[in-house]
From TrEMBL:
Membrane-spanning segments: 34-55, 99-122, 134-153, 159-177, 216-241, 261-283
UniProt topology in membrane: Multi-pass membrane protein
Identification of the protein by name: ABC transporter permease
Keyword Disulfide bond appears in the UniProt entry: no
Domain of life according to the entry: Bacteria
GO BP, one annotated term: transmembrane transport
Entry-linked Pfam families: BPD_transp_1
Cellular localisation: Cell membrane
Domain ABC transmembrane type-1: residue ranges: 95-284
Length: 293
């Protein structure tokens, strides 16, 4: 890694460029209740992934043929499917698979995008131009199409699905990291750190990354929801976990031919996907409000 570019001096007042004080955060009105409204349902869904047995005692793989196509009720909250399997149990047990694949995708996008964004922001104008042209190429192609190409070129499955979706998300993380590092490096406390003898890595670790992390963490939440949506869509097309795995997209694909007689097989898993994506998007917006200085 080459040396950090010298900060560009701006005529802003010292008070506006000083290191932000955490005491500003509690004073923002309406942030905490709205944040809880997004976090609490997400914690419940996350608990499905960690301990599905606490929420259902039904078998997500084996069904009871005599109980097929039962509508939602007290015994089966989301009804049963064409094989007599409990749909709610399959949704709950499928949460871990969907979240693990989405987590792999976000991890790839975050790590690779952060590296590209830091390189573009600190390695000079030529490196910035080259890196951002590559990012523009990725942004010019829809992320779903990039993931689909990568998955079809390899063997379909959760791992290749996560890698494909992760590569498609590198560009968005790279742009956000680059923009935030460029913003933070012009602040006076960063310049003061260099004048006091700070090295590139020490300034990066103590000042640049911590003060640029807020929007990146918000993007993690939003991108996790987007990854779940893409993974479910590709699972619907048959590129995810094979049957009889309880995967969200696969469940919708299995129930589409029974829409007229068993609407709950597709509608209720689809509702869980939509709510999860919307809650993660709301969490991302609230995190941006809290953490953006």
């Amino acid at each position: 890694m080459t040396t950090l570019l010298p900060p560009v001096h701006a005529p802003a007042a010292a008070a506006s460029t000083a290191a932000p004080a955490p005491s500003r955060l509690p004073g923002k009105p309406g942030v905490r209740p709205a944040l809880l409204l997004a976090v609490l349902p997400l914690l419940l869904i996350a608990a499905w992934a960690v301990a599905p047995g606490l929420f259902t005692g039904q078998d997500p793989i084996s069904g009871v043929p005599q109980e097929k196509f039962l509508p939602p009720g007290a015994g089966h909250w989301f009804g049963t499917d064409h094989l007599g399997r409990d749909v709610f149990a399959r949704v709950v047990h499928g949460t871990a698979q969907t979240f693990l694949t989405a987590g792999l995708a976000v991890s790839i996008g975050l790590l690779a995008g952060t590296a590209v964004g830091l390189f573009a922001a600190t390695a000079g104008r030529a490196a910035d131009a080259v890196a951002m042209r590559l990012v523009d190429v990725l942004l010019a192609v829809p992320g779903f199409l990039i993931a689909l190409i990568i998955v079809t070129a390899s063997s379909p499955g959760p791992v290749s699905l996560g890698i494909g979706v992760g590569i498609a998300s590198i560009a968005s993380f790279a742009r956000v990291v680059r923009a935030e590092v460029l913003r933070v490096r012009n602040l006076e406390f960063v310049e003061a750190a260099f004048l006091n003898g700070g090295t590139y890595w020490s300034v990066l670790r103590r000042h640049l990354l911590p003060n640029a992390a807020g929007p990146v963490l918000a993007l993690v939440a939003v991108d996790l929801g987007a990854a779940i949506l893409v993974i479910s869509s590709l699972g619907f097309l048959g590129f995810g976990a094979p049957p009889p795995a309880p995967e969200w997209g696969l469940m919708i694909a299995e129930g589409r031919q029974y829409l007229g007689t068993a609407w709950w097989m597709t509608s209720l898993p689809g509702l869980v996907i939509v709510l999860t994506v919307l809650l993660l998007a709301a969490l991302g917006r609230r995190l941006l409000t809290l953490l953006r200085y």
